[in-house]
Amino acid sequence: MCQEMPFANDELDFTYPLPSYFEHYPSCYIYVYNGKVVANSADLSDSPKILHDCSQEMRTKKVVQYAGALGEKLCYAIGLESEDRVPDGMQLLFLRDLIGQIDEKILAVAGRAVQLIEFDLTSRICGRCGTLTETLEDRGKKCPRCDLLIYPRISPAIIVLVMKEDEVLLARSSHFRPDMYSIIAGFVEPGETLEHAVKREVMEEVGLKVKNIRYFASQPWPFPNSLMIGFIADYEEGEIKVDGVEIIDAGWFRRDELPNVPGKVSISGHLIDWFASMKEK
Length: 281
Ligand SMILES: [Zn+2]
What we know:
Blueprint: E1 27-33, E2 36-40, E3 64-70, E4 73-79, E5 90-94, H1 104-122, E6 134-135, E7 141-142, E8 149-150, E9 155-164, E10 167-173, E11 184-187, H2 194-206, E12 209-221, E13 226-237, E14 247-254, H3 267-276
Parallel strand pairs: 1-4, 9-13
Antiparallel strand pairs: 1-2, 2-5, 3-4, 6-7, 7-8, 9-10, 9-11, 10-14, 12-13
The chain binds zinc ion.
Residues 126, 128-129, 131, 143, 145-146, 148 line the site of zinc ion.
């Protein structure tokens, strides 16, 4: 199930700081600028190449982050200072446009590369006192004046498929295209458990109580730094009520009458596919 989920690949080695046995592995580089990565500009009907073998500029760049080991290659993310620094013969591509176009493991590393460079660029100054931060051995940053510690931000969001017997709850957000429905999702609030966030989001968005919340899978979603945590829950009580602003329609759908729903690019598509395929069981 998770093998086909973009950005979710638990076979990669993200161990950091680098173990000593990695020291002699060759390096490769992903260049990042403003959420995009540099690819060769070959015809895009071919698989774009985003791993580059050499970087003469590597030693002079200020923004370099180790992004993980791909087999026996160490992959580094390099932040470009401007669009003008894209090497000749290359172009910038959005991460989203690489989904399904490149190897899953390379895509997962690229998702990390983009997030780590963004972290590096947005943590240069202490958010508490405005002093320049210092980089720590373990990737974090520290403010030398007030000792604030900063690490890459990950924003957890729950996504939940709610079932009522043979039907699934689907809702249409105001920012979806007109015929598109999906399941309920939302960011976890400070102080909440994931289960609490599931109950709150379902109540806020459609006015229903749910029970029997169980874990499904998770997916890093680097737009810009979410971690989607998927659940399945059973309907408990209530009538569907939508706010008409954020959610403009919601309803119960049988497996054989599903509207347009997200594809398996995202965990929402995987959850809905799981529900749709249950009829075989
Ligand atoms: Zn500070």
